[in-house]
């Protein structure tokens, strides 16, 4: 095999192999927010609702600057395993002080979400922003 043909074959195999290992599910939809900080007696919460007519797999994360999911409480339907029913909702949260953005990965384009900063004691919503593509 000529050197050029070998290099081309190796590159094609490598890119094919990387594509298999690094690809997300074909129909995955990812939504994110900007960066938010909850201080003192506040908490960050990411909320999701399935506005579709079919169950959806939904993974909701509060992602810190190291790329780690820092959510300390994940409600059913937001764990990426149990499906979120049509018109169902769920959320994840982390108490402050914390800084993160919300990332929602779903099998359906029919999910909507928002991130909020809440008073941890009263539950009052201090700031609420929709999640976008």
List keywords for this structure.
133 residues, alpha+beta, 1 helix, 15% helix, 41% strand
Write the layout of secondary structure elements.
Elements: H1 3-22, E1 29-32, E2 36-38, E3 42-50, E4 58-63, E5 73-74, E6 89-95, E7 98-106, E8 111-119, E9 125-130
Antiparallel strand pairs: 1-7, 2-7, 3-6, 3-8, 4-7, 5-6, 8-9
**Given this structure, which CATH class is correct?**
Mainly Beta
Strand order of the biggest β-sheet: 5-6-3-8-9
Number of helices: 1
CATH fold-level assignment? Jelly Rolls
In the predicted model, the low-confidence regions spanning at least 5 consecutive residues are 1-25
Portion in beta strands:
35-45%
Nearest-integer average pLDDT: 84
CATH architecture: Sandwich
The Cα radius of gyration reads 19 Å
Terminal Cα separation, in Å? 46 Å
- Any idea how many domains? 1
Could you describe the largest sheet, including whether it forms a barrel?
Answer: 5 strands, antiparallel
Shape annotation: globular
User: Which structural class should the secondary elements be placed in?
Assistant: alpha+beta
User: What is the H/E string?
Assistant: HEEEEEEEEE
Helix residue percentage: 10-25%
Compute the number of strand runs. Answer: 9
Describe the structure.
The protein has 133 residues and is of the alpha+beta class. The protein has a single domain, classed as Jelly Rolls (Sandwich). It contains one helix and nine strands. The chain has one helix spanning 3-22, and strands at 29-32, 36-38, 42-50, 58-63, 73-74, 89-95, 98-106, 111-119, 125-130. The chain has a five-stranded antiparallel β-sheet with strand order 5-6-3-8-9, with no helix packed on it. Strands 1, 2, 4 and 7 form a four-stranded antiparallel β-sheet that branches. A hairpin with a 5-residue loop joins strand 8 (111-119) and strand 9.
């Amino acid at each position: 095999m000529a050197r050029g043909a070998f290099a081309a074959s190796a590159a094609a195999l490598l890119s094919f192999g990387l594509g298999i290992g690094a690809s997300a599910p074909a129909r995955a939809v990812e939504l994110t927010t900007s960066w938010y900080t909850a201080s003192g007696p506040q908490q960050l919460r990411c909320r999701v609702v399935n506005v579709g007519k079919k169950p959806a797999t939904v993974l909701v994360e509060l992602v810190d600057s190291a790329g780690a999911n820092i959510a300390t409480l994940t409600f059913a339907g937001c764990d990426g395993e149990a499906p979120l029913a049509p018109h169902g909702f769920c959320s994840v949260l982390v108490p402050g002080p914390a800084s993160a953005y919300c990332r929602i990965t779903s099998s359906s384009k029919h999910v909507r979400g928002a991130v909020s900063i809440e008073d941890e004691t009263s539950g009052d919503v201090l700031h609420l922003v929709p999640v976008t593509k």
